Structures are given as structure tokens and as C-alpha cells.
Amino acid sequence: MLDLSHMGFLPGKLPDPSDPSVTFFTIDEDHIPLDQRDILAASATLEVTEYRLFELAYTRWFGESPTGDKIENFFVAYMFQQVVPFWVRQYCRDVLEKDELGELNPVDFGVHPRPESVTMVRRGIRFLCLITFVVVAMHLIAILVTAY
Question: How far apart are CA 124 and CA 117, in angstroms?
Fold first, then answer.
């Protein structure tokens, strides 16, 4: 049995890893402040970094794009002292509420899909050709090896 009592976990209190409800944050859920959990959930929902979430929240609240210095000061306070600005808190609440209702559109929150670049298209075509070649080669090998 793994002994984690020195880390503050008591025997029998660890989650069962075979339980499908166990997530990455299951053990730490009680130790992560609520505001920080909301930020992590909102950034995961929008598929952006926490820093980008701060930028989006600032733009939505103040109506202007932030400079690096403005966001950096707030983000450093969040990272090292768990201080969450009110406008980030409200932004996260709005995102999570819309997501819970099933009405979340990331574009409404300033997250736009990345445009396809030429490199992405070339990689996609190359990947498609490779997969097609592998599938055809496997079929040919199966036909040649099969004895009737």
C-alpha cells in the first residue's frame, strides 16, 4: 500500500483510480481555491491558456486590448498569491454559466478559431496520403498472404 500520510492524505481517503469520476484534480480539489478552479475550468472550456484568459477578460471588461505590462501584474499576483481580479472572476462565471446551459459560443467570448495556414494544409494532405498508403499496403499484403 502506498503511504502518503506524510503529505496529508489519510489511508482510505485516496480516490479509487478505477473509478471513472476520478479526474486529474481529484486529489487536490479540496486544496485549490474556488476562484482558481473557475479559471482552470474556463480556460479548459475555451481551450486557451490562463494568461490568454486574463487578456480576454480584460478586453471584455474594459473594452480595450491590454498591454503586456497591465496583464502581467495581475497574472503574477494570481500565480503567486492567488489574487483573482473581479473582472476575471466575472468572465469565468459567464463562461461556465453559458457552458452549463449548453449555449457557449467561444466567439462570443473573444476566442476565434485559428485560420488555416498553408503549412497546416500541407501537413494534412501529407498525413492523408500516408494513411491512404498504409491502408492500401495492408490490404495488398492481406490479399497476398491469404490462402484459399
Answer: 11
